[in-house]
Amino acid sequence: MSKRNYSRREFVKQNSLAGLGAVVAIGLTPDLIADYVTGTGAPAVLGGQKLRTKGWPEWPMWNPATDEEQVLKVLRSGVWSRAGVVTEFETKYAKAIGAKRCLAVVNGTNALITALVQQGIGGGDEVIVPPYTFIATVVAILQTGAMPIFVDSDPETFQIDHKKIEAKITPRTRAIMPVHILGLPADMIKIMAIARKHNLIVVEDACQAWLAEIDHKKMGTFGNAGCFSFSNSKNIPIGEGGAIVSDDEAFMDRCYSYHNYGNPYGTAIGEVGSGTIIAGTKLRMTEYQAAIGLAQLKRLEAQTTKRNENAAYLKSQIKKIPGILPYKLNENVTRASFHLFPFRYKKEEFKGLSRADFLKALDAEGIPCSSGYTPLNKMAYLENVLKTKNFKLMYPSEMLDYKKYMERNQCPANDQLCEEAVWFGQNMLLAEKSDMDDIAAAIDKIHKNADKIKNQK
Ligand SMILES: Cc1ncc(COP(=O)(O)O)c(C=O)c1O
């Protein structure tokens, strides 16, 4: 169909013959054919008119007129390894987050590893983590030699259920790694109280939570350290990139040293002339990455405001539809970053239409959507890691019994959450308010036609 907006009569004239042939061919009921011909809203997945033919804001955004000057300057300078532009990015990012210091690194995964290692986390330790996250969170814990211990999710907030943390603390627990997943803040007030009570380190995985806040304090500044990602889909897209923020100067000096082979930096100096002082690695951000980051950072504040406004509006519209349960923000959240917009889909209210078929139907209406994460506490990598030489050296054999490990790490609420979640991407929240109405209308259309979709598949 052409992109021109036809009147209903024109549309019927243009499409009735060919369209009718198509719908008869896929075996629709007379009732659906009637819907189709009169344009009253047969679902697109069954051959009806697509609710939305317009696209969504493209991602990443890039405006040559405003964004390229500094990048080109860097390219032409030949100074491509870490220098002044990376420092400028760190200074501006620290300011945006409200932290004393920021260290830019190659990606979010290595920001997490660096923070954990420089907080002294390693083999023999347990680190508490939610299962509703991207694999990189758990990868970082495993890379230090520590054992991830999963705490169930709160299905309403999609975040770690802070009420279930204390039951998982053992004498080996050294740290909590809360994740502000989807850009919605985990309850840091409650988590920090638990950490203080049990003397635990807190490294926040804020890789999806740029500018998100509780009581106007930014995510990443509650714990001992906060880590961020700037990969391509992220709200500050650099392609690859990451950052650690903290107010702890000595810790940040150690992180700097670690990311630069362990060479002396700031207060991390060792004996004069002693050369490399700690076991480090190389994780330096390049100057051209930082130049891209500076351009993206300029958009972040306004875009975050827009995502918050559109998310609140979309939530208010779709929560009216039976079976759609949008996210709930934790208490005292003053701002989220909405890397994703999540809701739970209850198929019982959609005549038993499966989530997979709901997603297909929604996509067919021109609303891209996804089912999100699968349970990270149940994947093969965990059995594999428990068998490794290093883990055998670092843990007693009863801790390496996979069956026991699985029992200890069950997260039933998260299992159900993973079966019910539906996400929209952050770029969709950068469209206009009327575009949010399209999303709500498409869900409503599927709700009204759930029976037909289920039976006609
Ligand atoms: C929650 C979370 N943690 C960690 C990471 C790792 O970041 P990166 O992909 O930059 O290594 C990501 C991003 O993909 C993430 O979403």
Task: Please provide a written account of the structure.
The protein has 457 residues and is α/β, with parallel strands linked by helices. Helices cover 42% and strands 12% of the residues. The chain has helices at residues 8-25, 30-38, 64-77, 84-97, 108-118, 135-144, 188-198, 249-259, 287-318, 355-364, 380-386, 389-394, 402-408, 412-420, 433-448, 450-456, and strands spanning 101-105, 126-129, 147-150, 153-154, 159-160, 173-176, 201-205, 213-214, 217-218, 225-229, 242-246, 324-326, 333-335, 340-345, 421-425. The strands form four sheets. It has a seven-stranded mixed sheet with strand order 1-11-10-7-6-2-3, sandwiched between helices. It has a three-stranded antiparallel sheet with strand order 9-8-13, with no helix packed on it. Strand 8 and strand 9 (217-218) form a beta hairpin. Helix 5 runs parallel beside helix 6 (135-144). The radius of gyration is 25 Å and the shape is globular. Residues 107-109, 133-134, 136-137, 179, 181, 205, 207-208, 229, 231, 242 line the site of pyridoxal-5'-phosphate.
What is the gist of this entry?
The protein has helices at 8-25, 30-38, 64-77, 84-97, 108-118, 135-144, 188-198, 249-259, 287-318, 355-364, 380-386, 389-394, 402-408, 412-420, 433-448, 450-456; strands at 101-105, 126-129, 147-150, 153-154, 159-160, 173-176, 201-205, 213-214, 217-218, 225-229, 242-246, 324-326, 333-335, 340-345, 421-425. It is α/β, with parallel strands linked by helices and 457 residues long. The protein has a 7-stranded mixed β-sheet with strand order 1-11-10-7-6-2-3, sandwiched between helices. Strands 9-8-13 form a 3-stranded antiparallel β-sheet, with no helix packed on it. A 3-stranded antiparallel β-sheet has the order 12-14-15.
